[in-house]
Amino acid sequence: MKKKISTILSAFAAACLCAQQFGNFEIDDGELSLGTQAVRFTYFDANWHSKSLKNTASPAAGFPKSEKGKSYTAEASITVNGKNAGTLFQKFSFASASSCRLESSFKPSGEEKFNEISYSFSFPIKGSELSLNGAVINLESSKKVQTVFYVDKVSVTTPQGLAKFTGNLEVLLQDGRLFGSQTFSLRFKPKNSGGVLKWNMGISYEKVKGITAALPESSDLEIPALPAGWIKLGGVDFNFSRPAGKGLIAEGGKEKKIALKGGGKHLYIIGAFDSGSALPEGDCAEIEAVFADGKTQTVKIPAENAGPMRHSKSSDSPNAVWTSKVGAKTYNLFATKVDFDRPDLKSVTIRNLSKPDWKIAAASLSPVSVPVERLKGAFITQSRDYAPFVPSKTIAKGSALDFSWLLDAPAGKYGFAYAKDGEIFFENNPGKPARFYGNNLCFQANYPDKENAEKLADLFAATGYNILRIHHYDDPLIDKSSPDRLSFDAEKLDRLDYLVAAMKKHGIYITTDLFVSRKLAKDAVEEGLGWDGQMRSNKAAFFVSKKASDNFRAFAKKLLEHVNPYTGLAWKDEPALVSLSLVNENTIFGTYSAMRPHFEKLFNEWLAKNSLSADSENTESLRRRFLAELYGKFFDEQKEFLRSLGVRAMLTDQNFWTGYYVTLTRKNYDIIDTHSYFGHPTFIEKPWQLPSKMRTESAISKYGGCIELSDSQMAGKPFSITEWNYVNNNDHSAEGAFLMGAYGALHKWDLLCRFAYSHGEIDFGKPVGLVGYFDTSTNPVAAISERAGALFFLRGDVRASDFSIPVLLPEDYPTRKNRQDYASLLKRAGLYAATEIELNPTPAGFKIPAEAPFAIAAEKAVIDQNKFDKPVVLDSISALPELQKLTSGKIDVKNEVYESSTSEMVLDKKNETWKLVTARSEAFIAPKGHSFKGNFANVRNSRGWSSTLIASIDKNPLKESSRILILHLSDVKNTNMRFDDPEMTILRSYGTLPHLARRAESVVTFNDSLDGWKLYALKQDGSRGEEVAIERADGKASAKLSTIRGKSAVFAYELVKE
């Protein structure tokens, strides 16, 4: 799988790319994580815009420092709105696994005004408890507050654990509901000591733990598909029996005793009463507790705090934690919470006051109170909302899902691709710009046998892909007995050659990197450089080691001069090879820290050579200038070498990070390439192992997610994104192909590759595997959604904007104290029109292109040193109101509605909806309850979130088409996929087969009676299934769409005139 988080990282993160664990705590980017919440330094500027370390900090030399398990120390200069705001020092000292002390100081520079500087801690209102000096505040029922308290102890119980803050504290309590959020924030204010702001407080954190109760009997509970083993629900550990299906049965009218060892005063029982009817009102059971000193306490259990196993509506209960549908029967388990006065329990006796048996699958004690609703939603099982189905690995030829008609086979028929005026052309077809839309193959997926290679090429073509990125291929290609790790495995090379030939035959082009994850030989780098053989160190070594550079060239030469026996061409002579990246994700600003001491030595030599002096104010900008020069030398040398071999493919590099500084180092590329992910997971305990944290909101609420890459697009250069994904397991991930295809077309991007089709062996004889985070091959909804991207981007259903908004960036930007790296306005401006970086040697002398209505300045010097005849706004959030005026209201700042300059798209951030209306395609993304009007059709979502596409597939406009594809996409999960929380932000287990389709229902109404038309639900391979009824009234036709129809999952329909 992918080994690096390909999202925007700050300079602070560059110094410490990996999170560090300190007992129950984790420090990442200078922030102290307590479970899924974090204590973070927060800077509020003069306009009350909050800033964190992730986008403001530049670490001082030698920082951060850490002593394993004991301390973490950081010092950094803080840049806000392009100005030096001051210097921050912070130290976390760990006394134990659950306690630490924060000592921090901030010295303001005086250059940047601020309203407040604090350490903040935000947590969800639902399921949390707050106490100040022992006095409990009921967050959910309290009035919305924003009040300062002076206390010496603050305790916060969250669904993940108990956090305590101690010291002489001045803390602002802020209710996020005042601002439309469902979170509560604590802002710890500093003490002012001679103009220096200081914090000193103790922080402790105890994770929610379940002390499981050993059930005295192992009776057969007769509950099908019951989970087994250790399972975490809402942070509480439960031990379900192995093998599954065993537990304790408290018969009606009888009692059972459970021995306990104390450790918590909150008892959780997972079980159900063996009944198909609702329980009678009143108490259904009572629990008598015996404490260590022999005293007792009895707690009554009302019927509403338990539940009947087989009642059809029980799964809607707030304490229903597990539901499974087997055949026509539904089985439920409920969480019953019992609160005792003391934690030193010795035993409990369960008395069943009802007639039906109480079947108990697991029980656990916890020292932390967790509301039962926090345990709900942890399991994904067959139910009314999820139905099992079997995906298809193939697409029926000629079906409505067969998009091979988009391709122009064979690849390379028009000669080599080249870049001109920001677009890609073929040498023998110079009048027609080319675009590419495809996917990645990783590791062993690049080496199928011939039969599977042909089937894979068929499938790629049927999906509408016309490019394949061969990725993570280099290490598997190496003969493991090769001492210099430069000899190829003959069988693997043959398979790779055949795959390329098969793709070429189908009209699918190739792109790849010359170094991805190949392990280097032990002597591949000179001694004394601090090289450790790890991947980031390998990439850093290429910039400073002659031996490493020679190794890179030797591999490249061997591969590119190799003649593919199935095409008769050397790779360097292959016109189907569109582009080459030198080294995958090797951005020098992010990799140099892997060999920091050697780079610092070279930096100091560079300073001396250029008669420059570094101080606290300019060190970071000088270091960036040095790294940029060092990188430029590396790229120019490798480019010259590759061209000397006869390589004609377009060259690029540094496909990781965005921002002004890295953009300036890309100006000599033939094509700009980068990577972006929305919702890339982070791993809580061990790298690339569950549990993991993930985003679950729609990307629409974050300005469209991956489309915010506009500060990487450069005027006059083609633009590609060879890795993008709206990561699976998010209920909204189907929106990814819609948004990327549509805004990619608006921005006139040239090449898009989703990451990834597969990371493993390609075998069409095996069933489709479990849904994971990235792979399209195991997620049928992601696979089907690619048709939307192909139509919008490849076919050109979405118009490019008539102009680009230039971002005026001087090439000498790093020579001044400009600390702002990431463009502020572009994620919003990019929803309106194409944006691109316009370079000029200095701030003076910029010219705004004639077609551009206005421009954005990367720094104030650009505005000060030019007299423009068109409006120019500074790249700052404060310029948003002006941006609204300049776009004639298409950017609605107050309501956060963004309409494209072409009037084809509208993104409503607040309501999380998106609409596209073009001549050949109409698309709608929304939660339940929203309706849309298009020119050809209207859509109303009646149940669940969904993405809907209505598109002509006979190349005619919708109103003239006789064959139309309708996609109606929800989400796919695995059976018994398990999350720690109902919001499904923490994934605990991938689950098992079969796949489960989430139910979504919509009504589509056509602005025509559609007489003589028929609507077919499509099977997973695109072939026609059952006919769907079309209702006609008042000259309009309508149909009900559902992702679950009978016993089948349906994500696509074919509307055809017969």
**Average residue-wise pLDDT:** 91
Helix coverage percent:
10-25%
Name of the CATH homologous superfamily of the largest domain: Glycosidases
What is the rounded distance between the termini? 47 Å
Unreliable spans: 1-18
Shape: globular
Number of separate helices? 15
In the CATH hierarchy, what is the class of the largest domain?
Alpha Beta
Please give the radius of gyration in angstroms: 30 Å
Domains, number: 5
CATH fold-level assignment of the largest domain: TIM Barrel
What class would the helix/strand composition place it in?
mainly beta
How much β-strand is present in the residues? 35-45%
> Tally of extended strands?
73
Largest sheet: 18 strands, antiparallel
Corresponding CATH architecture of the largest domain = Alpha-Beta Barrel
Can you summarize this structure?
With about 1050 residues, the chain is mainly beta. The longest helix is centred in the middle third of the chain and has 27 residues, at about 620-645.
Structure explained in plain terms:
- The chain has 1058 residues and is mostly beta strands.
- The chain has 5 domains: 11-204, Beta-galactosidase, Chain A, domain 5 (Distorted Sandwich); 211-367, Jelly Rolls (Sandwich); 458-659, TIM Barrel (Alpha-Beta Barrel); 804-894; 899-1057, Polysaccharide lyase family 8-like, C-terminal (Chondroitinase Ac, Chain A, domain 3).
- Helices cover 15% and strands 39% of the residues.
- It has 15 helices and 73 strands.
- The strands form 13 sheets. The chain has an 18-stranded antiparallel sheet that branches.
- A hairpin with a 2-residue loop joins strand 2 and strand 3.
- The model is unreliable at 1-18 (pLDDT under 50).
